[in-house]
Specification:
Blueprint: E1 11-19, H1 25-35, E2 39-51, E3 54-60, H2 63-74, E4 81-84, H3 90-102, E5 108-110, H4 128-135, E6 139-142, H5 146-153, H6 160-172, E7 177-180, E8 192-198, E9 204-210, H7 220-233, H8 238-254
Parallel strand pairs: 1-2, 1-4, 4-5, 5-6, 6-7
Antiparallel strand pairs: 2-3, 7-8, 8-9
Helix pairs in contact: 1-7, 2-3, 3-4, 5-6, 7-8
């Protein structure tokens, strides 16, 4: 039998909530990690009871349990990248910041989850400042969607110029690289979904893919940020990781799977 070097396989961790229907949250992150051939782990901070119609109940985990999850993984594994998902309040964000600064989990991808596809609010209003001031400065990459970027920057984002200005503003909060994902308006006549990328070196550009008119888009943001984290764990550059994530997420949207009634999951099997 071939000898296996301890912790030689690329590993990443998601710091997020559990979504019981598997379409979003830590479950979507783990699907994405698996699709990119890395070993995925999870630090669960909350759990929600939900399905494709919406969320009916939620429970936040105790901070001492979250601390124990961080320690358990740090004591054993060589985690090369991490990503965050749903972090509901300031107390939790501060706890994640405290723990992340203690461990060596590699570059951090921040997916600033504020609302679900169903419109349920997942981040308390008073936690927005904590997100800006304490979590964003740790981010190697931050990936807000269009509406999340509006909240974080306080801008309407009426045109591409405002989108560029918003990315620059988010970068000034401390995030090294920023991706503002373009609006995906179900039932619209838009032809493209364009994301704006602002890299640490100041280069900015748009990444576009064909708009797909489907309600099976739950977990797109989770998947996009998780693929970025996965590629970073494998040693890819941030720029390449973002571009791989854009293509992979589009592939997962194009080939719909029949699961759920309303906001169904995307198809991680379709990712090449």
């Amino acid at each position: 039998m071939e000898a296996i070097s301890i912790n030689s396989f690329p590993q990443a961790v998601t710091i997020a909530g559990s979504d019981s229907d598997g379409s979003a949250g830590a479950q979507a992150d783990l699907h994405a990690f698996f699709s990119r051939h890395i070993y995925g782990m999870s630090i669960l901070v909350a759990a929600v009871a939900g399905n494709s119609y919406g969320i009916s109940a939620g429970h936040n985990f105790p901070l001492d349990f979250i601390d124990a999850e961080f320690k358990a993984l740090a004591d054993d594994f060589h985690i090369k990248s991490a990503k965050t998902g749903m972090l509901a309040d300031s107390e939790l964000i501060l706890d994640i910041v405290k723990n992340y600064q203690k461990v060596q989990f590699g570059p951090l991808v921040v997916d600033p989850v504020i609302t679900t596809k169903h419109g349920a609010k997942l981040l308390e209003d008073e936690a927005i400042d904590t997100l800006r001031e304490r979590l964003l400065p740790l981010a190697e990459v931050v990936t807000p969607n269009f509406s999340e970027a509006q909240v974080i920057t306080g801008s309407e984002l009426k045109d591409q110029n405002e989108l560029v200005e918003a990315a620059e503003k988010i970068q000034k909060f401390g995030a090294k690289n920023v991706v503002i994902k373009g609006a995906h308006l179900i039932g619209s006549k838009q032809k493209k979904v364009s994301d704006y990328v602002l890299l640490e070196n100041g280069d900015g550009y748009f990444l576009s893919e064909e708009y797909i008119d489907t309600s099976h888009i739950n977990g797109t943001g989770d998947t996009f940020s998780a693929v970025i984290a996965a590629e970073i764990a494998k040693g890819e550059t941030v720029k390449n990781s973002i571009e791989i994530a854009k293509k992979a997420t589009h592939q997962a949207i194009v080939k719909t799977i029949g699961v759920g009634h309303k906001f169904g999951p995307i198809n991680h099997w379709a990712i090449e």
